[in-house]
Amino acid sequence: MLATTMLLATTATIAATAADHVPQIEAQRLSHDVKVLASDEFEGRGPNTAGETKTVHYLIEQFKAAGLKPGGDMVKGKRAWTQEVPLGRFEIKGPVTLTLNDGKSSQTFLQGDQMAVRAAMTGAKRVDFDKVPLVFVGYGVKAPERNWDDFKGVNLKGKLAVVLINDPDFETGEGDFGGKAMTYYGRWTYKYEEMARQGAVGTLIVHETAPASYGWPTVKNSNTNVMYDIVRKEPGKSHAPMEAWIQRDVVADLFKRAGLDFDAAKKQAQTRDFKPVELKGINLSAHYAVDAQVIKSKNVAAIKEGTDQKDQTVMYTGHWDHLGVGEPDAKGDKIYNGAIDNATGIASLLELGRAYGKAPAPKRSVLFLAVTAEEKGLLGSEYYAANPLYPLATTVAMINVDALLPYGPARNFSTSGSAKQDLLDMLIAKARNWNLSYSPDSKPEAGHFFRSDHFPMAKRGVPAVSFESGEDLEEGGLAAGKAVKEAYNEHNYHQPSDEWSANWPFTGMARDLQLLYSVGRDLAESKDWPNWSKDSEFRAPRDVTASKRR
């Protein structure tokens, strides 16, 4: 529990004391916005529901009142307040028939048991293939900047790729992929995308709890239900027909039947000399139907137009959606209000918008983007990144806010992941004005960098960071801060109990928003272009467009 004095702290305004030209941020207004957005009236803010309609209306009203302009789709020559986001909804209908054959006998795999098969997101109504061979491709990494290629020219067309989760450094803690910290190449989304690029019939990701950072029940629950994706012009370039996870012990047995040793092959995969290995005599057949539909949702976009360099854009983002109405808890509550996740982020976005609205226009434009469908897989931000309202080449940077803590001030702050980039260096340097220290992601191997809305922009090269509240509270220290986070994760995260509380002072959030305003304002007034470190997997796509930033 937090100290009582901190819980009862109700300072209405965090004054500008640490840096010049930093606005006042209203803690009471943050509380009000969270209370409204997380109320039962908004029904958990599920995309494509009545809750979305109320949420979008509220955001537009607040951005209007802040003095910002519409920053969304062009409609009849004028900007609207929203960006239409068509989403694909994919659901397996009927049984999933999976048959493994080793040349001597056949075996039936059960959906959610040996394998967890996702509904195909290619638009196909059925997935049907017979006796497709399996090829082990190690970690499935193709990283030119690291001189690493796990494929070595293998042709995966007509084959299933068996691929390890995480990246080659995870077990040894050292090497070309940053040690324990997960790179983009370790994330399951990359595996699916790369196997599609390689032309595979499907991807079977080998599940192991430590490198995945979660157990099989999480894999099963996350992959055997309804899937969502943005509507893509060529979905086959991002998704193979089959996308699935497979239990580690099942794979080890398949290797043994093929006369191979899984552990030895895995160890070899951690080296640059690894070559793909076919599991001779092993094949898989799969048959299941898929219901594919298109639903529509909205991102909300507001802008403070710049003066001298208005075609250059600094972005603040946060996701407005949560889980909507779902299974009731023990008390019968079925509305997943999403107060901390992520009404806090949207309240932050609104308050930052108010601060910019009152201030003189900066040289560069500043965009406030409230995105949809984060809980469905970062889809609102993915859609924006694939269909940007403002060119990515001239987007200076993106600062994302997600699930901030509404308590008293902390002595530190953190980010999702610790990717090396100038934007993070700027944030750390500016934080010293408030005597704030930076605490790197405590579990970089878990891949948190790839789980928030800044990531779709990052993978396209735009410098991006997702801000996280610190744990070292001014009242109670690390012990109190960790207790608060642990209690939230255990009892409230993605539960109906994630509700607004009158005891939340919001003073820590207010102070942190001064920092985020200050960094964004510096960027909006400068001619600088932050970039990724030279060894970053995101540097190359940024450098491709360098000529457009002269």
Automatic annotation (TrEMBL):
Q: Which UniProt keywords apply?
A: Aminopeptidase, Hydrolase, Metal-binding, Protease, Signal, Zinc
Q: Name one GO biological process term.
A: proteolysis
User: Listed GO molecular functions?
Assistant: aminopeptidase activity; metal ion binding; metalloexopeptidase activity
Listed InterPro entries: M28_fam, PA_dom_sf, Peptidase_M28
Q: Where is the Peptidase M28 domain?
A: 299-512
What does UniProt give as the signal peptide span? 1-18
* Domain of life the protein comes from: Bacteria
User: What segment(s) does the record annotate as region Disordered?
Assistant: 526-550
Under the heading PANTHER family, the entry gives: AMINOPEPTIDASE YDR415C-RELATED, METALLOPEPTIDASE M28 FAMILY MEMBER
- The name of this protein is M28 family peptidase
